[in-house]
Amino acid sequence: MSVIRTPGGLSVSYRPRALLVGAGCVVLAVVAAVLAIGSGEYPMAPDEVVRTLIGQGDPADAFIVNELRLPRTVTALLVGAGLGLCGAVFQAVVRNPLGSPDILGFTTGASAGALVVIVLAGGGSAFLAGGAVVGALVTGVLIYALAWKGGLHGFRLVLVGVGMTAILTGVNSYLITRADITDASRAVLWMTGTLDGRGWDDVLPLAIGMAVLVPVVLLGCARALRMMEMGDDAAAALGVRVERTRLALLGAAVLLVALSAAAAGPVAFVALVAPQVVRRLTKSPGPNLLPSLCMGAALLICADLVAQRAFGGHQLPVGVVTGVVGGGYLVWLLATERKAGRI
Amino acid sequence: MSGRTGANGLPGARGRTDTDARTDTTEAGTVMTTATDAKDRVAGDGAAQQDTTAARLTGRNLTLAYDQRTIASELDVAVPHQSFTVVVGPNACGKSTLLRALSRMLKPTRGQVLLDGEDIAGMQAKALARTLGLLPQSSIAPDGITVSDLVARGRYPHQGLLRQWSRDDESVVAESMAATGVDDLGDRFVDELSGGQRQRVWIAMALAQQTPLLLLDEPTTYLDIAHQIEILDLCARLHEEEGRTLVAVLHDLNHAARYATHLIAMRDGRIVARGEPREVVTAELVEEVFGMPCRVIDDPETGTPLVVPAARR
């Protein structure tokens, strides 16, 4: 642990390795973003992209970059960052690497909300996003209420979440069978998680939400969350208002999931994988919130780059890539944990 | 009223006349120690040490329950100032529950816990954590944490967003690790330590919190006999040399009798006896509290009471 101290008695501590991992992810994310912006039916070299981004490119390029491709890239970065952060929060609160919004049912709840809008109201993308937010929040409140028993325990939260996921998956399948064929295919595409055709109005709600929620989590709750790793009693003995902090953190994390799902659909596994990869890279205890945020952004933009480029002219929804990579990672995680005797 | 003594031994009460007045009427003869600074370490207050009712931490008319199940009702308890108080009793007698209530882990259904005359339910969480520490039974060492990182977490109530790691924090952590003999383990991972070492690390963390009062919930459970004695010796040293008030829940009556300066014996949610171990630990009382016939002899090492269970006839 290193520390910066001012003569006035202020001090900020940090872990060089965690900082390095975060910085590495940012560099990776920026490089991948430039490459992603350069790919498509009208390919651009990286230097052209950079020149256009700083306002020195020609007008045709500027239109393609700023209006068509940049929104998609920014969406990828923000969604990845939001999912990475909320995954780290969930896993720390639940004290279990499986405590990610995918498994706890929040993403399935967001899908249910969006499906209701698609099937019953047939609304446009703004309605769909609203439905996702409402779905995730309602699911969050339900899970919290069902798992609450004089306090919240991580294990019960996971079990209730798994049950909720099962119910909602059934609901979602039912809704799809009720939809007509065009609505159903649109719904399935949305549920895979996709960044295709994102515009600035898709980015805006997520950007505003993150501008508020990220400081709440990183500045307001991160240090208390670190204490809560040692158990509720130990944290309370150190002067943490455990229940209040947990409620604030879960609220912020559910909102982040909801807004991310609204922007890009329920992109799978980024929230699960990012904090785990970070933990292995930083080798430091603690929720590793900031590095996880950076890692999430880097993972999703890289996945999008792969989805756009790896299969020739054939683009994949980004959720397919994160699903395959994340699912493989989950299996590996379970296998190693089992070898270590923890499952 | 006579015998009112300030935290630094000066007569005369300061401030909070409201609370103090209530104290006067309900607990006549109580010597309140009113610390103005939470970190005040009260040293050498002769009168307070004599008078076993002198207490900074008291529970009044406590009814304690989990959900609807009442564990204890109408408990009155006082932790004598600068004592090493040990709570004993059979399993499920409510001793850990009492400790949880005293440390605000459990909100009493009725009654209140007072710290320096102030109800702890209304105190600011970090301020309370700078005066009253608790070593819970069920702490989890995060994966891959080193000893010095864990001990450093004890500084949390003294830190803030822009005061994350002061020179004070650094020196207090070093002192705490030296006091518990874990200073040469600083860079080791907590999960690779032995049970006794690990418990010393947790105690070091609680020490780093710098609280004049420290509550320990079964600090010797799951340790072998040598490590149990090591931990209790450590507690006795902290009590004697640093003047901290310790409250521990212990299973072993002989350990309690040997180390405690004040003993509280509980059974079925009631306090059956309290006082110096020599007065409290008698064959009759042990039979009443634990339902076990025994003889009580003098410990040949320390002269404290030693309980010898009766042989099967």
UniProtKB/TrEMBL annotation, chain A:
CDD domains: TM_ABC_iron-siderophores_like. SUPFAM superfamilies: ABC transporter involved in vitamin B12 uptake, BtuC. One of its GO terms (cellular component) is plasma membrane. Keywords: Cell membrane, Membrane, Transmembrane, Transmembrane helix, Transport. It comes from the Bacteria. InterPro entries: ABC_BtuC-like, ABC_transptr_permease_BtuC. Pfam families: FecCD. GO terms for molecular function: transmembrane transporter activity. The keyword Lyase does not apply. It is found in: Cell membrane. It is a multi-pass membrane protein. The keyword DNA repair does not apply. One of its GO terms (biological process) is siderophore-iron import into cell. Belongs to the binding-protein-dependent transport system permease family. FecCD subfamily. This is Iron-enterobactin ABC transporter permease.
